[in-house]
Design a protein that fits this description.
alpha+beta, 4 strands, elongated
């Protein structure tokens, strides 16, 4: 998330318009979806009652994406969500996201062990590191890259990999 302390506030007015207080402009549901996909923490508040409308608005976004055939959930799962009053939504995300996060965590740990080994050994080249990343890390990211909630963590991991590559280049010069 961009700012873990305070979510980005979107005000909903009586005329149903949504106003992004950070960008000082009106936004659409698509704009909010893009903000969320980019890792923003969003809070949607009714301007007059101060009621939190985040869940309702996010549900509207899902509905709009379903109408555009950007289906997020299988039809059977949507039916199960309605049937169980929302409980199966939690189950669905636990089944879908937990393995992906676990896979990323495993790849990260494996990469860290490999980098430590390289730094201790000192004779592997950057090409070998890139080869390792291509063989081990990239497939993991490709498997989970379709999950919007994982994109922010992936960006962070990419930055860390770039930093490690820079450190390795400096190490090779020594």
């Amino acid at each position: 998330m961009t700012n873990p302390e305070k979510p980005r506030v979107i005000k909903r007015y009586q005329n149903r318009k949504l106003y992004d207080t950070k960008a000082s402009r009106y936004v659409t549901l698509d704009d909010i979806a893009k903000l969320i996909q980019s890792g923003e923490d969003i809070s949607i508040i009714d301007n007059s009652t101060r009621e939190d409308l985040t869940a309702v608005t996010l549900t509207q976004i899902i509905f709009e994406q379903e109408k555009k055939k950007k289906s997020l959930l299988p039809l059977s799962e949507l039916k199960n969500i309605i049937h169980s009053g929302g409980e199966s939504l939690v189950d669905f995300f636990q089944k879908s996201i937990e393995p992906a996060v676990s896979s990323i965590s495993h790849a990260r740990n494996e990469a860290e062990r490999y980098i430590d080994k390289i730094l201790k050994k000192g004779d592997d080249s950057i090409d070998e590191v890139r080869s390792f990343i291509d063989e081990k890390v990239k497939p993991t990211f490709e498997n989970v890259s379709s999950l919007p909630s994982v994109h922010a963590e992936m960006r962070g991991l990419r930055k860390k990999i770039e930093q490690l590559e820079k450190k390795l280049k400096k190490y090779e010069k020594i």
